[in-house]
């Protein structure tokens, strides 16, 4: 079986078909780029807070319009010999859309570009053409460059390339039609418009990159704050586990030992005590599993969970002693009589003082600090006050910017027991932390 070799005519037809398809695709892409704006029509500086700065682009466009409109009419009438009607129509179409270019530059380009092309055709037959600039008079070039600047600050890169290509194509077409009357304005128009588009597009992309960077920084800051909050809540949950586990253990022991400690308990009551003990043990097991999730891997690697009981107001003297050894003079004032506090309130009061003293050590080393814990009459809240003066002048803070863990932890602990917290700087350069905690923590659901 013999195969027929391809004929040159077939190759030519295939090549022509591919070129036609590529050409149609290119024209379709060009039409999409030139007919579809990048945005919904927001004006330049539309997101700026200052009202006068938002109006600045309109003021600049208005100044160019009122200066170019009479100049264009004068040039077309006196230099090129056009009559007043056509000259005025062309001047209006070439300058007034500059106001539209502030918010919708691509639509303004279609109007001005069409008017410029029509003006170039009309000037080609004008009686006073002679040695005048053609096809682009100086006023047309100035207005077109202003339009290019507005366009470059709005549209995407492909649209700018398409606009520049259309400008160059029309300029070359006019030069080919009447090569003896070009006077080089087509080169000037093509070159300057390309430079303006390049510079404006670079400024727009740089501004977009900066805005994205600021957005990412804001997102990172929000995520950092949320992570700090979650870490503090996890830490509080771990600590409160020990407090609750102690009470659950007491319940379990009392329920198990009740039949042996109290004689004459009915069989039904013994079974009820056994059920209470089993439920308490099950609750303890569930809490330990939850704690295993909350415990950090680092804590587990260093020997597992801490075995020491959770601290309270009784451990404040030891805490203050350690802070004094760190170089911070501290005065401590505690109630004369021991105050019966719920475990959650006792732990929260200690942690608030601990965080406040840690902040003094980090940010105001050497500052004189006063710690006061007072309990009012029956029913009055417990007041925890930590006030430090301004640090000595030679002393430099160990940290210039904190992570916010201290204040976040204080707020979460106060919120846990339905208390109040007031923090802030003092006029003399010091800092104040004041918390009021109920003597007995209330049932509280943060959700």
Overview features:
single chain, 447 residues, alpha+beta, 5-stranded mixed β-sheet, 12 helices, 7% strand, elongated
Radius of gyration: 40 Å
Helix content, binned percent: 55-70%
Please work out how many helical segments DSSP would assign: 12
Strand content: 5-15%
The computed structural class is alpha+beta
Q: Walk across the major sheet and give the strand order.
A: 1-2-3-5-4
Overall pLDDT, averaged?
A: 81
Number of strands: 5
Q: Output the helix-strand order.
A: HHHHHHHHHHEHEEHEE
Major beta-sheet overview: 5 strands, mixed
Which outline best applies? Answer: elongated
| Terminal Cα span | 85 Å
Low-confidence stretches: 398-403, 443-447
Describe this structure in words.
There is one protein chain. With 447 residues, this protein is an alpha+beta fold. 62% of the residues lie in helices and 7% in strands. The chain has twelve helices and five strands. The protein has a five-stranded mixed β-sheet with strand order 1-2-3-5-4, covered by helices on one side. Strand 4 (420-425) and strand 5 (431-437) form a beta hairpin. Helix 3 runs antiparallel to helix 4 and helix 5 (138-152) packs parallel to helix 7 (185-261). The protein is elongated, with a radius of gyration of 40 Å. Mean pLDDT is 81; it is low at 398-403 and 443-447.
